[in-house]
Amino acid sequence: MPISFNPLTGDFDLTGGAAGPPGPPGQGVPVGGTAGQVLSKIDATNYNTQWVTSSGSGTVTSVGLVAPTGFTVSGSPVTASGNLTFSFDTGYSLPTNASQTSWNTAFTQTRQWDGGTTGLVAATGRTSLGLGSLATQSGTFSGTSSGTNTGDQFTVTTASTLLGRGSAGGAGAAQEISLGSGLSMSGTTLSVSAGGGNVSSSGTPAAGQATEWVTASTIQGVAVTGTGDYVKGTGPLIDAARVSTNAAVTAGTNAQGQGLLTSDYNIITTAAANPSGVTLPTATVGRSVTVVNRGANSVNVYPATGANINALAANAGIALPVGAMLEFMAETTTAWESTATPISTGVSGLGAAVATFLATPTTANFAAAVTGETGTGAVVFGTAPAISAMTVSTAATVTAGTNAQGQGLLTSDLNVITTAANNPSGVTLPTATAGRRITVVNRGANIINVYPATGASIDGQAANALLSLGVNARLDFTASSATAWFSTRQDATSISVLSGAGTGVITALGVATGTAGAFTVNGGALGTPSSGTLTSCSGLPLSTGVTGNLPVANLNSGTSASATTFWRGDGTWATPAGGGGGGGDAFRWFGAADFIPRTTAGCGVNSDETTTNRVNRDLLLFDAATQEHAQIWFAWPTGWNTFSATFIWKYSSGSGNCVWGAQARLYSDNTAQDTAFGTAVTVTDNGLGTAIHHESAATAAITPGGTVADGRPCVLQVYRDAANGSDTLSVDAELIGVILTKVT
Predict the structure, then answer these.
(1) pLDDT higher than 50, residue 143
(2) Contact (Cβ atoms closer than 8 angstroms) between residue 742 and residue 640
(3) Three-state secondary structure of 105-130
(4) What is the pLDDT of residues 413-434, one digit of tens each?
(5) C-alpha span between 703 and 679 (Å, rounded)
(6) CA–CA gap between residue 12 and residue 15 (Å, rounded)
(7) Helix, strand or coil for residue 37?
(8) What is each CA distance from 273 to 270, 301, 376, 494, in whole angstroms?
(9) Regarding beta strands 335-338 and 308-309, do their DSSP bridges make them parallel or antiparallel, or are they unpaired?
(10) What's the predicted TM-score (pTM) here?
(11) DSSP secondary-structure letter at 556?
(12) What is the pLDDT of residues 48-80, one digit of tens each?
């Protein structure tokens, strides 16, 4: 059992031993399955299960009911739950049980009237017909001959005609009903002659007949819409005809059969793919279909399978750009013609050879279509072109302006400055575009300062900074972006390309520079310049050549220099050892045994040793899934304001990276201890392998909460940021210790 000593309380702390090994894994539940499925045994083998879809009661997708004639159904189909309700259709009913006997009697009498097995007796039959008794009648009549009965009750006039009742009630002569035009009577059958009852096949319809057809709302059960005259099939005059419209068509993927068009006028509002696809309906001769593309991408319009458009190959589509409209007319059941205009023959007003180029955009066709071009060869694009004998724009008589940005604007690729009246004068490069090249030659009488356009830079200098161009000198400028130029200016490493200089001058210029009133001699005596900066001299006597105090910035750039530090022999600033508050050194080491796991969300503790050389280590164990913490109290070192933390750690299995964090809090007398820490700072360290010593990079400067003062109590909290996306180590990170390094 690990034992640790708490230096603040003087107590020994006992902590529990390491956790025991995990038990063997169980069978678990099979992966997969979808909502509503259950786990079912496959056979008698233990744990041999699978996800299945349960059968039995539950909701339904769609159940419908079709009723026979005389009934109607409501609530059909049932898509989830509900009832199907039967009702009688208009004009239909069934007898009740109380009336069933009456219905049976009526049925029997009907059979008697129709010549059933039991006929009506004469008296009953005559009474029912209103003819009185047989004794009051005299004479006979036949349905196949004409004659008049003596009782003058009715007269049979002509065989095979219709008879009507006499005008005086039941008495009087029978009246013949004549058949109108278009009707005929043959025996006992009334039929319609050629042309129909009220509609004649020729001539003028009787008064009112045409009006009845025009104003009808249904004809033979078919609903009639619209107003006006009826139209024949050839050459009709139709006013304000209407077509079927679909104003919100969604195009599918770019394939035949996608985005089926079902209306005469189709407005595509959604075209997600680029290009998308729609498909015309099966062609019927004379059908017209209009397609408008209001989607976000181009749409290919395909015919139905086996058909073609504009005599193209079968099933080939035709492009419909965004915002465009095409009309399609079916000339056969497999051929559509569209209003797509062939660019080569259907567009007028194009220049010579332009249509040919638009249809076949080759370099040769392009050259034939354009006029006023210069040069020959293939069309050139912006990336890595091969250009032969290129001609650039030239301005051979540029006048430089005053020495200011915006003066002497350069507008050509090659600019020869012939007039530079001021000393120095000024010229300004054009607005940069990536890849543009500008050449400037100074043939004027004075030095010229070359400025970039406002906001741009040259050779990485500050924005708007100039570059000098001597008399008879030349500079080339190339734009790397819209705000950056780079020039062919020579620096000390490339000045050797100059020619005509005396022996040793080029070398001297590369290693030494002078100022106004001074000069440089290579290989000779320096002389006594009035002023200058020594560079690359062989020696400088401190007793006679140096006066005043050496600036602190000249020693390690002044890093860590302060009133309490000194310059060490190893070339660093350091605080003298032995200062109050636990030492004034620049480093503090805290091992794992010095820390206390936090009571809430604290880390685990352990110790181990290496296998071969038996190196022992106290360890703090930080979980891979939960953020855990450990803390230590110490006296704040003299001269410290901020510090960084370096984490010494390892891991025993797995792989991945670990994110460590640290924060601190200083306390003064009579302040609450339950006070927030300073801002936490983290560092990510890459895993290098198991049993490997890991030292993280130092964190950025950590500023403790509270007021900094030498020797004040400080609590340091360290943790593993397990929730950080950069922390990928799936096992415990084992912390050996932390090195604190003074920053300021």
Answers:
(1) no
(2) yes
(3) HHHHHHHHHCCCCCCCCHHHHHHHHC
(4) 999 999 999 999 999 999 999 9
(5) 7
(6) 10
(7) strand
(8) 9, 13, 40, 56
(9) parallel
(10) 0.30
(11) G
(12) 888 888 765 555 677 788 888 888 888 788 877
